[in-house]
Design a protein that fits this description.
Strand order of the largest sheet: 3-4-6-5
CATH architecture of the domain at 59-145 and 186-196: 3-Layer(aba) Sandwich
Distance between the termini: 24 Å
Helix content: 25-40%
Shape: globular
Radius of gyration: 18 Å
Strand content: 15-25%
Number of helices: 7
Order of helices and strands: HEHEEHEHHEHHE
Largest sheet: 4 strands, mixed
Number of strands: 6
CATH topology of the domain at 59-145 and 186-196: Rossmann fold
C-alpha cells in the first residue's frame, strides 16, 4: 500500500468497499490523511501482515491493486495461493513490480544489493516467479516498462534533449512490443492484469 497514489484514491472513491493494508504505521497514517483530505470516509485501513489472518481478516476481493508489492515475497507460489484464497471467483489483480531477467540488471542489482535497505525482502521477478504467476492466474494483460526506453538514461549524460526524444520513441516502442510475457525479459519493470482461474 505504502502512502497511496492517485489511483489508490480513485479506487477508494469509486469502489463499493475499499480495504488498504501496509506493514508500516507511518505510511498508513499518511494514506489515511490523504483519504480524509479527499473526503473518503468509508475505507477500511489495516496496519499488519496480509498473510496473517488475525491481523488482516478480509476476504472476497474482486480487485487487488498491488503496486510494488508482489516482489517482496520470496516464496511466490505460497503467496499467490494466499492471494487467490482471499479473492472471489474471477477476481482480478493489478500489479507493478521490478523484473530481473536481463543479465546486466542482475549484475547491477548484485553490486547494489549490499547498500539496499530492503535487500533481505526484495525479490524482483525472475523466470520462476513469472512462471508461478502464469500457473496460478490467467494473464489478461501484461506491459513491460523500461525495455528499450531504459537506454535513454545513459544518453542523458551527454544530451538531455536526445534522451527525451529517444526516450519517448523507445517508450512508445515498449508499449507496442512489451505486451506479451515472452517480450518483457529485458524490461526493468512489469505490470500485470491477472484474473483468478
Amino acid at each position: 500500500m505504502g502512502e497511496g497514489n492517485p489511483l489508490s484514491l480513485k479506487l477508494a472513491r469509486e469502489a463499493k468497499e475499499y480495504v488498504a493494508i501496509d506493514l508500516s504505521f507511518k505510511r498508513m497514517e499518511s494514506f489515511r490523511g490523504k483519504l480524509r483530505e479527499a473526503g473518503i470516509m468509508g475505507a477500511k485501513t489495516y496496519v499488519g501482515d496480509f498473510l496473517n489472518e488475525t491481523e488482516f481478516p478480509e476476504t472476497d476481493f474482486d480487485l487487488v491493486y498491488a503496486m510494488s508489492i508482489f516482489h517482496h515475497f520470496k516464496h511466490m507460489d505460497d503467496f499467490l495461493d494466499e492471494v487467490s484464497e482471499r479473492m472471489r471467483p474471477g477476481g482480478r489483480i493489478v500489479t507493478l513490480d521490478p523484473i530481473q531477467t536481463w543479465l546486466p540488471i542482475k549484475l547491477m542489482r548484485l553490486a547494489y544489493r549490499p547498500f539496499q535497505t530492503d535487500a533481505a525482502w526484495e525479490f524482483p521477478f525472475d523466470k520462476g516467479s513469472l512462471g508461478a504467476i502464469q500457473s496460478k492466474f490467467r494473464v489478461e494483460k501484461v506491459q513491460g516498462i523500461y525495455g528499450y526506453s531504459k537506454w535513454a538514461v545513459p544518453i542523458s549524460i551527454f544530451s538531455r534533449e536526445r534522451a527525451k526524444r529517444y526516450g519517448y520513441e523507445w517508450h512508445m516502442k515498449d508499449l507496442q512490443h512489451a505486451n506479451q510475457v515472452d517480450n518483457i525479459m529485458s524490461c526493468l519493470r512489469v505490470s500485470f492484469l491477472l484474473r483468478k482461474k
